[in-house]
Design a protein that fits this description.
The chain is an alpha+beta fold. It has one domain: 2-Layer Sandwich (YaeB-like fold). Helix content is 45%, strand content 24%. Strand 3 and strand 4 form a beta hairpin.
Length: 108
Amino acid sequence: MKTYKVEVVPEAEEKLREYLSYLLFIKRSRQAYDAVREDYKRTLKKLRNLAGSIREPDEPELVKRGLKKILFDKHDYFLLYEIENGEKPVARVIDMFHSLEDFVRKLK
C-alpha cells in the first residue's frame, strides 16, 4: 500500500485554529473543541494511507485545480489537499472548510 507524507500549509493550520477557537470561546464547548481536534488528527492519519485512492471531487473547480477533499469522520468539516508525486509522495493540505460554507467561491 502506498503511503503519503502529509504536510499542512500554515494557512490551513490557521483555519483549524479559527474553527477551534470559535468552538471554545464563542460556543464555549470544550467537548466540541476536543472532539473536532481529535477528528482532525484522525483525518490526517487516514490521509496518509488514502490520499491517492480518494475519488475525484464532484466540483469542477477542484478538479481544475488538481485538488481533492477528505471528509472528517464525525464532524461536518473537510480538508482540501493536493498530491505531489515524487520519490516520497506528499499529500499537502491546503485548506479546511465547514461543509455549509461556499468553499468554491472562497477559493477564487
